[in-house]
UniProtKB/TrEMBL annotation:
SUPFAM superfamilies assigned: Acyl-CoA N-acyltransferases (Nat)
Species lineage: Bacteria, Bacillati, Bacillota, Bacilli, Bacillales
Keyword Transferase: yes
Keyword annotations of the record: Transferase
Record Pfam families: Acetyltransf_1
PROSITE patterns in UniProt: GNAT
Domain of life: Bacteria
GO molecular function: acyltransferase activity, transferring groups other than amino-acyl groups
Protein name (Swiss-Prot/TrEMBL): GNAT family N-acetyltransferase
Limits of the N-acetyltransferase domain: 6-170
Gene3D superfamilies: 3.40.630.30
Record carries keyword Transferase: yes
Amino acid sequence: MMNNKISVREVLVEDAKALLQIIPIIDKETEFTLRGEGEFRLSLHEEESFIRNILAEPRSVMFVASCNDNIVGSLGFRGNNLTRYKHTGEFGMGILKQYWGQGIGTMLIEHLLSWSEAHDIRKINLKVVETNIRAIKLYERFGFEIEGVQKNEVKIADQYYNLLSMGKFI
């Protein structure tokens, strides 16, 4: 995979079809997503509408990561419009498993941090399952800190797991 050309950019409405193809795969490949396998059910029209809403919202953004011009992951950030919370927002991301370990998560977060500074976002939050050590280490490398624990918040199969709230003040 040394010849792979990886890039990150803001999402386009035209990316909806490719995202609809990879999101269910990501959900199937890892137990760390919000959804379980088969729970993502947006139509092409609904996904296009979702992207249009993100593009129209000045405090929200979505980035897609591509490898050789094929979308292989994404990061979505939802900002807050309430006056007292306008400086904050929360993100989540997913990457196809075959592309893990290639720096894509790092690139997505770097783009988010740069975008956040330019859009007056000063606090970035996320939630992560306590057993997702790879992701936690990635977030910690960028200065995210564990700020709270939601006990037994996630049920995977018959096991309950804590959900960690992490944040970074820019």
